[in-house]
Specification:
single chain, 6 helices, elongated, OppC_N, cell membrane
Amino acid sequence: FKKNKMAIIGLVIISILIFTGIFTDFIAPQSYREQNLPLKNQLPSSNFWFGTDEFGRCIFSRIVYGARISLKVAIISTGISVLIGIIIGSISAYYGGFLDQMLVVFMDVMWAFPTILLSLIIVAVIGASLNSVIIEQRIKTGINIINRRTI
């Protein structure tokens, strides 16, 4: 592991993202929602490390809070997908036969289905929200986990 520089760089980046997501309230200098129109489109400075946007919101704070939301989506989606994938994969492995063949055919269809189209359908049916992103990620990750267990 120590000889693989890319693995170390990846570990450092992931560690920074996790640390940032956990300690967002202490790292972010301003609220990500706070608008201050007189300070719109400011260049980076000691008060606004990445500057401000057209509404005067601190870009650094918005990025840090975005890391927290991304971390939540990743953890929730992965956890639920793993649980669903293990349950369905275990049922398929235990019963085998016809059920296993049906799951394999279903997974082949799901793998052939474009994921971007699946994402658009989910957003159209459920609406654009954090929950729809989590559901979409659960389905995509669950498909991958089930497919690895049955094939």
